[in-house]
Amino acid sequence: MSEEKYLQNYKKTLFESPLLTVDAVLFTYHQGDLKVLLIERSNHPEKGKWALPGGFVDEKKDRSLEDTVIRILKQKTSVEPPYIEQLYTFGGPDRDKRGWSVTISYTALIAHQACRSHIETVSNVDWMNVARAEKMELAFDHQQILYRARERLRQKALYSIVPAYALPETFTLPELQRVHEVIIGKPLQKKSFRRRIEQANLLIDTGEKRSEGGRPAALYRMREKSGDYTFVRNLEQ
Amino acid sequence: MSEEKYLQNYKKTLFESPLLTVDAVLFTYHQGDLKVLLIERSNHPEKGKWALPGGFVDEKKDRSLEDTVIRILKQKTSVEPPYIEQLYTFGGPDRDKRGWSVTISYTALIAHQACRSHIETVSNVDWMNVARAEKMELAFDHQQILYRARERLRQKALYSIVPAYALPETFTLPELQRVHEVIIGKPLQKKSFRRRIEQANLLIDTGEKRSEGGRPAALYRMREKSGDYTFVRNLEQ
Question: What is the pLDDT of residues B25-44, one digit of tens each?
């Protein structure tokens, strides 16, 4: 049989295959806390439980798995997150009551104000403090996915300025340091943090300043691709 | 409707879902070269092309995605690799002619002698020099998967002794250094390499020695979990 003929006769739906979903762990930073986006499930299974935003691949619309995640997050937040990275793929017979299932999980970051107005209008979508979410009984194995995403984010905060994606487009160095500290869970030395960031040349000084109580601090924005930069020594050292 | 009733009526096969496979990039070290296991495809699609070993989840047999990979690798090599790690999940409408498809890829390492006799008896399975495989027209997007696995392995060789899993259970320090050098693609300083490995206390001296031309060298084996150890500075420094 030729390949052409084989493909004409091939029907995916004739073979049993695990249920396939995509889930996103979307973080933001707001008022001193690291937060994660959760959805209260309105359908079976696990109806009524809080869950990570997720869904199925749309074979007509999506050209990649990242397209799927972005489409789902846009439905929930109205905007596309500036940072998205594949985290891990979980699979097994028991994680979903509908049967053997696989989910490809992603970590994403967004500024709180970027989607604030949209999220406030939707009743079953909310930002939850990560510390609180970690103690909730989330749907499926989402607790495990959240835990893994939290760990990955901690590594990112130690070795890169990826946490800046949880801030508005312009931010001060004390604000950036604060997000890093909240994610790492420890205070960082101000002088050393500032020097490391400056030496790596990751930020652009916008020329503007903002004062928050104290003296005015310079406003920065990220240089293009500076989220990809990895520090050789972590920022705690 | 209750969840129980919902689950009774739920049929996975009623929903179109991407084709789901698992692929493994199994590396070994033999006679000075890094090698990868390839299979000559005997079925459509891409019949006749060389491909990474892979296959479908068996919902009856497999309790996890790692079970799937191990089952498939055991079919090809007769043994279970001592090192296996999830690499990345690739998905899209064009990577497989049968339609929208997703593959969860894994990197694995094994000693050449552990499966030598089995592989020699099978006609369509072979170890290929990685440098050569990278120039071949592999099936599907397997060239891209191989490239990513090669990069991940390079990072592992810089920051851990994971490459030791491509050696027999006992090995000399010069042998371990050689595998690291082949994977990294650069010579390492002998004295510094030896000191770094010793300081991290990752190996157990078996008390035996082996001479290969020169003076006898001590034979080591890996301490339990020493593959998880990450050097703070990479081994080139």
Answer: 999 999 999 999 999 999 99
CA B64 to chain centre: 17
Contact between B21 and B54 under an 8 Å Cβ cutoff? The reply is yes
Whether the ipTM is more than 0.90: the answer is: yes
**B234 in a structural domain:** no
Is B57 close to A18, i.e. CB distance below 8 A? yes
Residue at which a domain ends, from A157, A189, A204: A157
Last residue of a domain, one of A105, A134, A157: A157
Q: Check CB contact under 8 Å for A13 and B12.
A: no
B7 touches chain A (CB under 8 A): yes
**Residue A232 corresponds to which amino acid?**
V
Nearest to A12 among B19, B88, B93 (CB): B19
B1 touching A (Cβ < 8 Å): yes
Q: Quick check: is B7 in a domain? A: no
CB within 8 Å: A12 and B1: no
- pLDDT tens sequence across B161-197: 999 999 999 999 999 999 999 999 999 999 999 999 9
Q: What CATH number has the domain bearing residue A129?
A: 3.90.79.10
Single pTM value for the model = 0.95
